[in-house]
Design a protein that fits this description.
The structure is a homodimer. Chain A has helices spanning 36-41, 52-69, 83-94, 108-119, 137-147, 170-176, 225-233, 245-251, 267-283, 285-305, 333-344, 371-393; strands spanning 25-26, 75-79, 100-105, 123-128, 151-155, 157-158, 163-164, 180-184, 203-205, 219-223, 322-326, 346-347, 349-350, 359-363. Chain A is α/β, with parallel strands linked by helices. Chain A folds into 2 domains: 25-32 and 285-391, Aspartate Aminotransferase, domain 1, CATH 3.90.1150; 36-281, Aspartate Aminotransferase, domain 2. Chain A contains 12 helices and 14 strands. Chain A is 39% helix and 14% strand. In chain A, the strands form 4 sheets. In chain A, strands 2-10-9-8-5-3-4 form a 7-stranded mixed β-sheet, with helices on both faces. At the A-B interface, helix 1, helix 2, helix 3, helix 4 and helix 9 of A face helix 1, helix 2, helix 3, helix 4 and helix 9 of B. Chains A, B: Keywords: Aminotransferase, Pyridoxal phosphate, Transferase. Chains A, B: Substrate binds at residue 361.
Amino acid sequence: MVGNKSMAVSSPKELLLPMIVPQKLLMGPGPSNVPPRILAAGALPILGHMHPETLKIMDDIKKGLQYVFQTKNELTFAVSGSGHCGMEAAMMNLIEPGDVILVASNGIWGERIADLGKRLGANVKVLQNPTGVAFSLKQIEQSIHVYKPALFAITHGESSSGVLQPLQGIGNVCHRNDCLFLVDSVASLGGVPMFVDEWGIDAIYSGSQKVLGAPPGTAPISFSQRAISKFKSKKIRVPSFYLDLNHLANYWGCDAGPRRYHHTCPVTNLYQLREGLAMVAEEGLEGCWERHRAAARSLYAGLEKLGLKLFVEDEATRLPTVSAILVPPGTDWKKVVVYVMQKYRIEISGGLGPSAGKVWRIGLMGYNANQDNVKRVLRVLEDGLNHSRTTSRL
Amino acid sequence: MVGNKSMAVSSPKELLLPMIVPQKLLMGPGPSNVPPRILAAGALPILGHMHPETLKIMDDIKKGLQYVFQTKNELTFAVSGSGHCGMEAAMMNLIEPGDVILVASNGIWGERIADLGKRLGANVKVLQNPTGVAFSLKQIEQSIHVYKPALFAITHGESSSGVLQPLQGIGNVCHRNDCLFLVDSVASLGGVPMFVDEWGIDAIYSGSQKVLGAPPGTAPISFSQRAISKFKSKKIRVPSFYLDLNHLANYWGCDAGPRRYHHTCPVTNLYQLREGLAMVAEEGLEGCWERHRAAARSLYAGLEKLGLKLFVEDEATRLPTVSAILVPPGTDWKKVVVYVMQKYRIEISGGLGPSAGKVWRIGLMGYNANQDNVKRVLRVLEDGLNHSRTTSRL
């Protein structure tokens, strides 16, 4: 023992009680429910972070990510952190202090990319659209001509407002102007068509806890050859060892050298990400996209019957994985959310950032993107609306 | 579907085969085996990152960490990343470009802190000891007088060489010289006495996958009031939003404000960290320390019987959680490691960084730190040595 030293902080009583983890149906913008097969993978025995079986799982993940990203990029792997950590990995490796970067911002994710760019010393320019409105190729092209950025960043699936940003053509515009093209696909990857190589995307990141159905904790990411060239030409080292592409590329077997220890990767989360990717591979990516589109269409039809309107007017730019629904005038959005959670243990979310207080958000992602869940969430939303009206009249 | 567009990357066949995750006994420097109760927590249903049940689990973790750190620091939580990410969180929030920092380096972890300091623009000074040799208080004091650093960093448990660094007295020296005291406790926390408040430690980080028995993916961390003052006085923003203490403090309920969304925390990993801390609370911290000490002593005795020597000569500075054993002249260290893994599925590790090729490393951490495992690892090590000698003579 430690002699007669007394313990200044005693054993916390809270930890002697059982942990409470109820089963809920998560129909918000993520995390979405983890399918039983992936949950089971979370209880598999731990392996070392350099064991051959772990490296094989990492190799499988790489293949699976190349498939869902539709890319042949050798530098495709998963960052050991949340989707936001993926954003930081992309930005830290691609920009240097003083670089001009242009960020398309129509919701919280654009704001965050811009904020991070400033933290990293970039000269950040913002192309602003109102919340809920996608950017046109012409807008983007004009803005790139004005600012001549070294990097242009845009969000594919703006989960705060339910906007799906069309990406075709942007890569060409960027490359004609010697600019890297960075995409945030946290809320969209696997749920809508994505063609990283064909669309000329130079860097893209996502999260494990959305369509891929794994718990949060890993962030898929991919870099083009053009991005690697920019990274290699940087004069200043990355302000992080954890996210340094040189080390990550080696650890993930993306370079020619023998794999060296870099950090202790979240082994269990990798099992789960691998299983999520296996489920997409088994279903087929096109089938997975179609399932999400069909679920979203059924949701739109049901919402119309309830007299509700979608926040994004243009159907072509609606994100199937996360729908933002306008809160009707006079309705207390929070009352509905709380009622549905308390009565049914179903999550419907409010807005976030610029959309806070204006919308509800319903997620249809991965395992949860099916017709039964659409019916269920519409039923409880209707009940919630009735409850809110009844109690408001009291 | 996506019209008649063809898929450039087809579904990977590797993902249609089952994942292979064998059961092994991990007696290396970590991750160590995850106890059944914590594995089971990994398969619990997912909750949202802002749900009250999740916030309660985070509150429990905070209490548990205050207990294992022996601190009343309000700013005590877990970073969403590996132990190395914890190092980055501490360094990014506490140092500014141009700051002089002093790093005590006698193994890989000191080297890494120094490297990170340079990446962050600090003026890094290194107090160097040979691998395997702890620092004396006098050495540290003299070096602080010479360099007058804003921060002094040292590793409590040098897992690359098996050194336990005595920490008593360093805090006073630092504070008398207006210097913050930073400690890496990744390999030591929970396995040896630690008194953050009493020892005047200003910032300390650890990892989930060592003594605490959870999978890798979360990094316990704690900051003193002195550290917070330094953070608040910084002129330049943290080059990361993910690791920015202002946001993390709020998300973890360590400030007065209502908790706001910051990033999507690894919910499942938090369940598991909470259960790991609950197991320490149930056993009692002093009992946990004692169990590790007793296991290490049995290991030392057994190694002596095998004619093996420990790398760290001074028993008072031997780390109970990770022991480095000198490879006898003429013995092929790798042959032993490979044999033991292939025949028994038991992990014994080689060296790392400065100790590579010179030592084996045996970990006795958390769930694995018991007398049965000590006997088992000694038995297989003996068999491995015999095998290596026999085959060398052929």
